[in-house]
Amino acid sequence: MRTLRVLTLLSAAVLLCSAAPGLAPLTCSEGNGPAAADKAVHHINEYHDHGYKFRLHEVQGNSVEQVDGGCNVKLQLDLRETKCHTTNPKPFEDCELREETERAVKANCTVLMTIKDGDATITKYECDTRQVNTNSEMVRICPDCPVLLPLNDSEGLKSVHEATTEFNKNTSNQHYYILKEVGRISSGYIMTSGMNYYAEFALVETRCPVGSRIVIEACTPLCPDRARHAFCKSSYSSENGLLSNDCDFYPAEKIWIYVICYPY
After folding, report:
1. What CA–CA distance (Å, rounded) separates 225 from 236?
2. Are 204 and 175 in contact (CB under 8 A)?
3. Which residues form the signal peptide (predicted)?
């Protein structure tokens, strides 16, 4: 059995990272809402390692409690899901928002932050996600729009597995890819082809060379600083099988520390 061991070396010489894009300075004034919200959304997206990136829609609440040497800030934020998967390196500010007809998703987030001596630290955040419009509301807005399905829907997952298999059959890549996660699945009925399934999913590059005689599902991903990702959108018909599968490729993650990764 092959497993993955990761050795992380932390030292001053290793942590040679470039500075992140500058955010507006935070103060303990009542007018700090936009700057505090900006920092909060950056933090949420930075630590959100699955699904899609979010953008700020509205600051619904901002309370500031003065304490010795600084203040405690509580934010209530309304975020909207973008079309950028977390594997997409594009800054979330540049990501396109989903239309209501695409079953847009919102996140209601509570963020706690401390500001002391000019330094702001997010101590806790919680987010609840749901569709912007309920299913009954969507029936009135767009009765013919595809319906969101659970990510474990059996027919939806079948479409994803067929698309992944086809991806690995028709490829010029050096290594096989395996499923990282399913982002969303929706379905809609079409008279000419029956029930259609539309899936979005992320794949990750493995260490298994293309053409090797191995069960692909048993392959392990390359280390994060080497593994590329593919984000795919597929359509599948219950009567005609896989109809389309379009994928974008993203480079390996930027790792600002040395990571030694090897099988044993």
Report:
1. 33
2. no
3. 1-19
Show the domains of the chain with their CATH numbers.
33-136 (3.10.450.10), 146-263 (3.10.450.10)
Beta strands 175-190 and 194-209, pairing class:
antiparallel
Do the strands 52-67 and 4-9 form a parallel or antiparallel pair, or are they unpaired? Answer: unpaired
Chain-centroid distance, C-alpha 236: 23
- 47 three-class SS: helix
Percentages helix, strand, coil for the chain (3-state, rounded to 5) are 20, 45, 35
**Which residues lie below 8 Å from residue 133, measured CB to CB, with a gap of 6+?**
100, 103, 104, 141
Q: What is the pLDDT of residues 200-229, one digit of tens each?
A: 999 999 999 999 999 999 999 999 999 999
59 in Cβ contact with 77 (< 8 Å): yes
DSSP 89-101: -S-GGGSPBPPGG
- In whole angstroms, give the CA distance from residue 259 to residue 37: 33
Rounded Cα gap, residues 224 and 97, in angstroms: 27
Give me 221's structure tokens.
């991903």
Higher pLDDT, 199 or 7: 199
pLDDT of residue 264: 40
Cβ atoms of residues 55 and 33 within 8 Å: no
Distances (CA, A) of 183 to 29, 50, 154, 250: 39, 8, 15, 16
> For residue 74, what are the CA distances in angstroms to 61, 111, 135, 154?
8, 6, 32, 41
Q: Would you say residue 21 has pLDDT above 50?
A: yes
pLDDT of residue 15: 31
First to last CA, the chain: 8
